[in-house]
Amino acid sequence: MRRYTVEIKGKQYVIDVQELAADEFRVILNDQAYDVRLAADQDLAESRITPQIIPARAEDEAAIDRPVASYRPPDPETLEKPPSVPTPPQPPKPHLPSDGIRNEITAPMPGVILSVEVREGDEIQRGQTVVVLEAMKMKNPIKSPRDGVVEEVRVRPGQTVGYADVLVRFGEGKP
Questions:
Q1: N or C: which terminus of the chain has fewer CB atoms within 10 Å of its end residue's CB?
Q2: pTM higher than the cut 0.70
Q3: pLDDT tens readout for residues 111-122
């Protein structure tokens, strides 16, 4: 379980988030529990977070178990200020469409494609492995962030890819 403190319009709220499954969570806010299902996820630097919140069933509300936090971080005012270090140049961010939903899966890091698990025309589900990428001697399954139909596979086993290279493009099938 993770505990977050968020501030909204100057008021602080404590939110506990418990992972129930890969895409299902229980969120506890002010002793009120909500079951949340993650419909899609993407790494978007400029996106707004809009989770879908489903109130918990009445029988689940009776037993809210909140863990007691045993660690409190030090007050930031008491910490020593680190010396200023210039930020190294960052790789360019992939292009983000205006609707915020990419029609492709891109490489999250440079590496070598070990295997391609889908073909053009395949219907794929969110979380399904699309390709396996080897980076730093580790096999990294690259999974689909949403349901869709494969329009184009742009890589093949043995191919070297860079950060943000397009691996697979979605078609006009399932959203």
A1: C
A2: no
A3: 999 999 999 999
